[in-house]
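Something for you to look into today, if you have time. Could you write out one complete protein record for me, on any chain you like? Leave the record below and I will have a look.
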Amino acid sequence: MSLPQPVPPSWKDLGKSSNDLLTKDYPFFGTSLEVKTKTPSGVAFKVAGLRDSKSQAINGDIEAKYSDPKNGLVFTETWTTSNILKSQLELENYLAKGLKLDFSTSLVPDSGSKSALLNLVYKQSGLHTRGALDVFKGPTFTTDAVFGRDGFLFGAEAAYNVTEGRISRYAAAIGYNAPEYAVTIHGLNNLNTFSASYYHRVSPDVEAGAKAVYDAKSTTSGVALEVGTKAYLDSAAFVKAKINNAGVLALGYTQTLRPGVKASFGLALDTQRLNDVAPAGPVHKVGASFTFEV
């Protein structure tokens, strides 16, 4: 008799370990600050801001989230400095076990622009599937599903434009997840873009990963390649490094200063232009991120 299969990751989380290793904790695009607080009644507040190092613009948002774990209810309201009002209602395991309802809306009062997205997620042993209806755009119905069996993962996604009566986008993926490593291959953008990624936990303190992307419709030939690693210095600090085939080297350092207080620093260097006397435009980037949670 075969063992019960775990719930596989969602479509958007296929290859997540590698993506997180190569993209998170590199705050070299500017300086960001995030403050999180939570009340005893289950209401959480978050204020976040980012000063972009290129445009010097400062953008931020304030978020309030109410959670009722007993009934699987989460309600989130967000107001951004661009004057965008966002609302999200999540209801999980209330109508049926494994079923999650997610309804998200946004409104720009200045222009009257609005959006509404209805998501239905269903997951059980060996299956993780989703259906999404973009009410105002198209409308477009998107569905995806991931099947898992003994570590092997098979996924597919398709988008259907209701007004035009055609499939506007489709993609597929295959992968394998093990406790120490994961491998994923994607065929995206109507199978015109292919990516392969891997993640490996070398030891309890060291992680490594890489990602290669080939775009059949790109004006530049060849494969984009990026490799990276993460090393824990102790229980409160880690360093990250990655480099791509364009010669851009990125470094990141994250330190937990005390419970609830975290600081991250990032640096990106264009190694092919280190000796340029007067480079045109910004070549190297530096930034920092600070998070306070109480």
Summary: The two ends are 48 Å apart (CA to CA). The CA atoms of residues 117 and 291 lie 30 Å apart.
